[in-house]
Design goal:
Length: 258
Amino acid sequence: MVYRRKQLRGQGRSKSGFTLLEMIVVLSIMITLSTMGFVAYQASSPPGAVNAARNTLHGLLRFARNQAIMQGSNAMLIINYDSTDEEKFLRYAGVIVEEEYNSTNWKAAHSGVYLPKGVYFVPQSSEDAETDGFGFDALWPLAGADPDVRSQYHCSNGVSTKAIGAIEYPVMSTVALDAATGEEQNWIGYQFGPDGRVKGVGFSVCSAAGGSQSNHLVVGLARYESGGGLLFENSEQAKGVMLRLNGVSYAVDDPDAL
């Protein structure tokens, strides 16, 4: 009788306990859920959202460079610059690849992606919100400041400070840059050649496409004002990506390093 009671007690303990496999499964689920929660927090809360946006554009830059090398052609990261579309303006990006080297016919290599809400690509253009659709608050470092916390993109060496043109995107078939298709919008471009090096972009505003220039891109927090126009603010939370002439890029967390 005593032996049977001990046996029953032992059976009760084995039923209420966890096997090693069960513990591993539970821990794996907990780790997965906590990771998903962290990613969701990072993508929705400043400064995590800024970091997520920077990483998104950095990934697209690398993807564009890889496409250029693999296809043996030109490839470009493009960022929307159509101020009439508030959903896409300065926060929608994609990658296009030239069908054949110097064929002037391009196709989408990426379906396009939106940056997290409240985070935008910081252009280098003028500070007139009425003209360009955006402006900067009084504390944002601009031209003449060290650093000038804005992106830098050149068509070629000293030819133009703008890399802006028109294209319909995304497209499944090939399309010419600056083609009047009725669906085109303005875009800012960062281009790579088939050797993976930074190259002048092929938009019509760029009178020479053969040069290269050191570039960087910056993302930061912004909001639409009641009177219209996007206002960039809190420059201390801006983050960027430096792009060397050879096409290699690296992330920058400190705005002062820009």
